[in-house]
Structure formats: structure tokens, C-alpha cells
Amino acid sequence: MNAGICYSIVIPVYNEEVVIYQTYRRLKQVMDLTGEPYELIFVNDGSCDHTAAMIKNYRDQDEAVKLITFSRNFGHQIAISAGMDYALGAAVVVIDADLQDPPELILDMIAKWKEGFDVVYAKRTKRKGETFFKKLTARLFYRILSASTDLDIPTDTGDFRLLDRRVCEELKRLPEKNRYVRGLVSWVGFRQTAVEYERDERLAGETKYPLKKMIKLSMDGLTSFSYKPIKMATYAGFVIITSGLSYLVALLLFKVFYKSGIAGWNLVLAMQLVLTGILLTMMGILGEYIGRIYDEARDRPLYIVSECYGMMKKERNVKRVV
Fold first, then answer.
1. Is 1 a domain residue?
2. Global pTM value
3. Same domain, 259 and 306
4. Secondary structure of the chain: what % helix, strand, coil (to 5)?
5. Are residues 44 and 136 in the same domain?
6. DSSP string for residues in 104-116
7. 167, 213, 221, 302: least CB-packed within 10 angstroms?
């Protein structure tokens, strides 16, 4: 750790040219208020607009700005992990570039950190500018995840949080490829607390978490921290066997007491379709786990850095296993 840097602010960016100046300006205003040394680490996750060029211009005027550019788009959670790898501060703050999370809250996080907390996460009390569908699905996901794992993963929180240096060092030792950072932070433990806030609308541009990526993030969270989805196959199998035997007994009793043939091929077909659907669903869940095992077995680098601007390129990105 560089003894001269107190705070590292990690900002994943992907095609954020319309908002990046405001993000930089507000972060700089907030961090200047601390009166302590800091660095702003922008992690360019394969942007194809002018985001990287704009950040380089800020670096030419401000030595606190640093830029990591990936060779391609590796994903938001990977960008966060890379920023933590390169961070030098005694405390590391992760914040998105869209300004839905107010940079001014960082001062409250720092105050909690100085009180002795190792992790200070931002808890949303209201989500402005988001559709009813997104709010509903997010609420359901957090409740399902909480019920599916023994970990205490805080609900209604994102990746906006402050981490003590020792927490970051422990996170570097976790090599999984399909990362769910907020779950990993809960897994490593340490003393944690929350600061509450109302989440604003995105300042400009489009969300970088459409439905497809939200589903992927949800699956990473569930499969990384819970075995209950895979156990559903056993429960479903028991229910299906019991239902099938009961139905067979009912058919036999009907034939014995009413002494007539049994019609109802439509019902049998419907049951077969339901059974097939359940089996395919269970196979899909098994496939998710097997796919993650395959990713770990290949042991490819978590990310590849093509350029570092304002900082030295590290070799840690070649292999994250300690």
C-alpha cells in the first residue's frame, strides 16, 4: 500500500462520455473536502466511445486521476475487481459513473470507517427513475437470495460501498470467475454497517444493466452462495413421483369400482408436458453449476489490461490465484 494515499475511488465505466465529466467533477469536489490524499481509478470496461480519451484529458490536469483500460468488455463485476487490485488507498470506495449514487455520501462512509467499521455499504430507501418491473424484480431477487443462503447479504444495496484495505486484500484471494462482489464482501465478514440514501435517476445515457445482464448477475449471486436451487431437483422429483403414484392409484380404483375404460389422454399429455418442463428446468439449473465449474477449471485470467494511464501496469491480472 502507498502510505501517501488515504482513499481510492474505483469507478467502472462503459460508454459514459455523456456523464463522465460531471462524475469526475463531483467526485473531485467531494474528495477535496477530506483534505487527505486520494486517487480516482477509472476502469474502462471496453468502451467504444470517447470515455477513455476524456479521462486521459482529466489525468493531464489532475494527478489523482488514473485509468485502467481492458482489452475488451469483461463486465461490471470484473471491472470492480480490477479497480480493487490496483487501488493503493487505506480505504477503497466503489461507485458507478452514472451518478445515481451520490458521491457526497462518501463523506458519511468515511466517517463510519473512522469509527472502526471495515465495510460501509449504501442502503437504498428509495429508487427514483426506475420502472415498477425493475423495482419489483430487484426486491424479489434480494428476498430470494436472502432466503437461499446462510450469509447475511444486505437487501436493497448495490456495489456502492467503502472497504477497508484488509477487506480488499482478502477479496484478492478469492479467485472465482463468475463474481458477485457484494456477496463476496459479505462472505469475508469483518465489521459492517450501512448508511441510507435515496437513489437518484441516472443523470444521462442508458443503463448498463439491461434485463439480460440483471438475470446474469442474479444467477451469479444465487449459484455462488447457495446450493438450494440444485436441491430443488430432489424436491421436485419427490413431488412428481408422489403425484404420479397417486394418479395411478386413482385410475385403478376408478376402473375397479366403475368397471369402465379410462379416457383422458389430454390429461396424460398435459402431465407429461409438465413433467418434461420440470426436468428441463432442473437440467438448466444443473447446467449453470457445471458451467461455473468449467470456468474455474479453465483458470483463464479474470481480465486483461491493454493500457494503464497514470499508473504502472501490474502482472496480477495474469492469474488471480494466490
1. no
2. 0.66
3. no
4. 50, 15, 35
5. yes
6. THHHHHHHHHHTT
7. 213
